[in-house]
Amino acid sequence: MTSAAKVVAVTGASSGIGEATARRLAADGHRLFLGARRTDRLDALTEEIESAGGTAAFQRLDVTDAADVRAFVSAAHERFGRLDVLVNNAGVMPLSPLAALRVEEWDRMIDVNVRGVLYGIAAALPVMRAQGGGHVVNVASVGAYQVSPTAAVYCATKFAVRAISEGLRQESDGDVRVTLVSPGVTGSELADGIADPVAKEAMVAYRAVAMPAAAVADALAYAVSQPSGVDVNEIVVRPAASVA
Length: 244
Ligand code: NDP
Prior knowledge:
By secondary structure, this protein is of the alpha/beta class. The chain is globular. Helix 4 (103-131) links the parallel strand 4 and strand 5. Helix content is 45%, strand content 16%. The protein binds NADPH dihydro-nicotinamide-adenine-dinucleotide phosphate. NADPH dihydro-nicotinamide-adenine-dinucleotide phosphate binds at residues 11-18, 36-38, 61-64, 89-93, 112, 139, 141, 183, 185-186, 188-190, 213.
């Protein structure tokens, strides 16, 4: 346990980057509160962390439901007495060309990737302000900086997360730190949700150079480990071999 042990809530902790982040931050001595819909995965991860001497708990979470997100943050606060860091990591990426008109998938990306982040901020800000400070870490993407075919809506959601993060930073008066972590292609289950055949095919070569989720977790842990007067605002981390 480090002397700077924090209480950290992570959304989307059941796989990929969220899971790796939970593991890494728990190994650093922080206390983890994990959320996602697949509670069997969260149960196994919590047990793994606790068996390794760490501290973790979990609660089922659907980030598209504002009341659920509020309950998640309250539960973290009740369990550990404070909430130092919220990692808004949950995300979906059902890519497709706009002309495929997969409107339901557009809605889902907006609901999870944008509304989910806003609901997290709405739930956590009052808690952080009341305790005198905190840290919001939003996981965006290199798609927050550039657009590519089949990714218009996904990139739009990630541009939005970047804008929201910068706005929150400017309004925070120094009491709430804000970090945007933008990964390039990373090994996870994210691309499994692509149903459109054109986008699916395009992903095969693109994802061949994926870096491990632990690489993103390490970058995120760097921001979390800074002293209270230091705010790491943006981190972009790509596989060295990635062009996009
Ligand atoms: P995964 O698909 O492995 O993980 C996504 C996580 O989000 C899962 O834990 C999933 O949990 C959770 N999630 C999805 N929908 C919801 C929901 N409605 N409520 C709560 N949790 C939800 O992908 P990654 O680890 O790659 O994705 C993590 C973040 O990283 C995302 O924001 C993604 O956009 C971003 N990212 C990923 C990149 C990559 O190449 N992998 C590159 C750039 C950014 P469950 O299904 O159990 O609810």
